[in-house]
């Protein structure tokens, strides 16, 4: 019966119309003519534009700090701060071009050498910076000069003047997290450069600044909680997210234990603060240690495993605030009927 139906359909498509053309020929002619009207048939791309589940372009990937750091330091020798403005190695996803670390989040490793100044500018993009290594570095954010200490998270809110500098010897390296991919979709980004290298600023107490989250405080919060896996968000003093687009958190994973298995629409970037272990992302194993950074695109199932040697601490930033505001945040296993909107 099925074979007979296919035959009838094929015959019908080959039947000639009054002008001597088959239906298939007329359809091809229609599609060709549509090009001149700048329209396209939705029915030909329905499954592509309305996928049954998230289908990110970016793929899971890990950037090994020990492999990247020598190139970053070499750039510090060859490229001056005046040439670069910001001396950064972007963490580019293998499946896309810059600025995509994931489809919605950008990450990069930034370097400032001794007695340098990364000149003052401001931009629409929001930034949060995790300090990886070095001493004597600072960032000045809209009049507030903040000392950089390893493990601290420092915010650069939208349209705040900011510059970076380094006193003393040795390099200063940190992980930048920005919402730059959004501006590929929304062409509304602005940048303005200050007329002097540094914007006027005064030293502030990092322990009491609303844009600084010292690692010592975050680690104390993590260690105060019971359980093998603990996660704590970075929040403003009023309990709100650090920005409307990007959010951050830190995790503690006891030696020899694992985190829950999670699948969510949020995409994230993880940095290993301390310890070693591996993550299983979309069925693949990614081994990591202190200093490494890896990404998890949307709807890739993942789980973290700490090695038996020591407790692991992980820093994470993601797009949860943006997805939550848009109504796009979803975790596998949720009752889908709770997602029905009015």
Automatic annotation (TrEMBL):
Q: Where is the Cupin type-2 domain?
A: 109-176
Q: Which GO terms describe its molecular function?
A: dioxygenase activity
Q: CDD domains in the record, alphabetically?
A: cupin_GDO-like_C (cd06992), cupin_GDO-like_N (cd02216)
- Indicate whether 4Fe-4S appears among the record's keywords: no
Q: Which Pfam families match?
A: Cupin_2
Q: Which UniProt keywords apply?
A: Dioxygenase, Oxidoreductase
Would the keyword Repeat be found if you checked this record's keyword annotation? no
What the entry lists under SUPFAM superfamilies is as follows:
RmlC-like cupins
Lineage: superkingdom: Eukaryota
Task: Kindly provide the name given to this protein in its UniProt entry.
Answer: Cupin type-2 domain-containing protein
Natural source organism: Trichoderma harzianum CBS 226.95
């Amino acid at each position: 019966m099925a074979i007979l139906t296919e035959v009838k359909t094929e015959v019908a498509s080959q039947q000639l119309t009054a002008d001597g053309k088959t239906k298939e020929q007329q359809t091809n002619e229609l599609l060709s003519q549509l090009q001149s009207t700048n329209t396209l048939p939705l029915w030909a791309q329905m499954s592509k534009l309305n996928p049954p589940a998230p289908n990110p372009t970016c793929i899971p990937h890990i950037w090994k700090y020990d492999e990247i750091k020598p190139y970053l330091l070499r750039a510090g020798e060859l490229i001056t701060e005046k040439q670069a403005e910001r001396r950064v190695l972007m963490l580019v996803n293998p499946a896309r071009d810059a600025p995509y670390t994931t489809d919605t989040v950008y990450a990069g490793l930034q370097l400032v050498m001794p007695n340098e100044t990364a000149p003052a500018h401001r931009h629409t993009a929001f930034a949060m910076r995790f300090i990886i290594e070095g001493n004597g570095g600072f960032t000045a954010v809209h009049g507030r000069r903040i000392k950089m200490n390893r493990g601290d998270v420092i915010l650069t809110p939208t349209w705040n003047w900011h510059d970076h500098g380094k006193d003393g010897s040795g390099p200063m390296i940190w992980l930048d997290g920005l919402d730059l991919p959004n501006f590929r979709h929304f062409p509304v980004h602005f940048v303005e450069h200050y007329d002097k290298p540094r914007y006027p600023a005064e030293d502030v107490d990092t322990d009491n600044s609303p844009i600084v989250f010292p690692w010592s405080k975050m680690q104390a919060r993590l260690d105060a909680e019971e359980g093998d896996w603990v996660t704590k968000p970075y929040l403003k003093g009023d309990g709100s997210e650090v920005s409307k687009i990007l959010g951050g958190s830190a995790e503690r994973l006891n030696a020899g234990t694992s985190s829950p298995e999670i699948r969510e629409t949020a995409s994230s970037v993880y940095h290993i603060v301390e310890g070693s272990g591996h993550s299983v992302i979309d069925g693949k194993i990614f081994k990591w240690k202190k200093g490494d950074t890896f990404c998890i695109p949307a709807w890739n199932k993942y789980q973290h495993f700490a090695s038996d040697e020591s407790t692991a601490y992980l820093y994470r930033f993601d797009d949860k605030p943006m997805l939550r505001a848009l109504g796009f945040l979803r975790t596998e296993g949720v009752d889908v009927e709770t997602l029905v909107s009015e």
